[in-house]
Amino acid sequence: MRSPPPPVSQSQQSQQQSSYGNPYQPQPGAQGTHIPSAYGGFLNDPTAQMGLQVGQTAMKASQEYMEQNVGFAAFNRYVNVSALKHYFNVSNSYVLSKLLLVIFPWRHKPWSRKQSISPNGQDGFFLPPREDINSPDMYIPVMSFVTYIFLSTILAGLRGAFHPELLGMTATTAFAIIIFEILCLKLGTYLLNISSDSQLLDLVAYSGYKFVGIIVVLVVAEILNGGQGTGGWVGWTIFIYCFAANAFFLLRSLKYVLLPENASDRNTVARAQRNRRTQFLFVYSYVVQFMFMWVLTRQDGPKKSSAAA
To answer: Which end of the chain is flanked by fewer CB atoms within 10 Å, N or C?
Structure first.
């Protein structure tokens, strides 16, 4: 007969029960072998490690490619978004003051833009619009452009001349004029040897201020002309004033963009080049703006539309 096993203490018995109850607890003789030998050998293989590194590098490269060529990064490749932020840095007081300046520019002085002073005492960058009323912005031109499209259709509806295609026709005409004007500005900057992106963005911003005068023409002519559109001597009088105000505003503002006053900038622009820029400034401020504003402010009255029907 065999002798009975030795008595087991209570601590040893509880330890055996806990180890039997947890099948994932490593046994005393199997410590340090969490990964099976087959998988452990594969992960420790130098070829497998090199493959993992190559995969991580390819994944990182594809992620960088997507960031550079898709979405915001792709847009930033063609448009300087950081420079655009400067033109939308406006405040409520600036917007109100700039609207009054565009409509009543006759007695405004000075027209030169303010510059920040660098630590070495020299001129730095131009101040943002919220800090300088003479600084061009794109907030007012964009909002005026959208307001013009909706205002034109609303006024046509009040005169009984609204039709479903009017909104699309008005937006298409305004977009076409803006695109054509930007292309002309791009060609002008090339012919005038203006290579700075900031000067091109300034010209684009200044080109949108005419919508402020156009909105004034539409609203005031609609009120004073008895709902007959912008025709008649009342509409033409308001149009001539807003056109002259916009032309004077552009002439004085663009002078500091196309014809620099600083001695260093003046030396870089030849005399013949300055003459060409002066001619471009006059033609753009008066001839081109007159044509565009006349096309965009044409509003037929209800009698004319009913007679045409």
So the answer is: N
